[in-house]
Amino acid sequence: MAGPAVSDRKRPYFSDMGTNRLEAFSDGVLAIIITIMVLELKVPHGTDWKDLAPLAPVFLSYILSFIYVGIYWNNHHHFMHVVDRVDGRILWANLHLLFWLSLIPFTTAWMGENHVGALPTAAYGFVLFMAAMAYLVLSLSVIRIQGKDSAIAKAVGKDVKGKISALMYVAAIILAFWVPALSWVLYALVALMWVIPDRRYERAFTEGH
Length: 209
Prior knowledge:
single chain, about 210 residues, mainly alpha, about 0% strand, disordered N terminus
């Protein structure tokens, strides 16, 4: 006797898709972002210490951006371990995050090459701000599918650190047109806030298992 028609067979619902492919794709994109940034570091033409001096702004911009990308990779990794399944909304939210992160090499190079000019410094902060907002959208998309009482919803909570970071980005963007050096200080302070992996997701993962 012939089996059931293909159209009659039970197919897995799209929201039951696992997170492995999403995380692997994200890891690949972040690796490419770091590669692009390091390629922007030009080799000096001389062999003395003084020949490295003009590269200092570019190198400092690279270090700061490397730390930021590392923070996003680390927290994204922990975040995905709490996510049980994904749907189309989450996939697009993740791509939205990767879009803003992919602009970091451009603004990093622009800021470094122009010795922390006003507009490049503000643009750098704008990209960081939008990446933070995209991460928030991703978190809300996951909470939507897993429920407001889920472990991840409790882990995100009021996200006080995220709100403080957003305010600091806005302040840095405004200050860039008057005192760009202060904007740099604020960008570095935000990175310092997040450089330690976000333990909220680790606790949520432990509680959920």
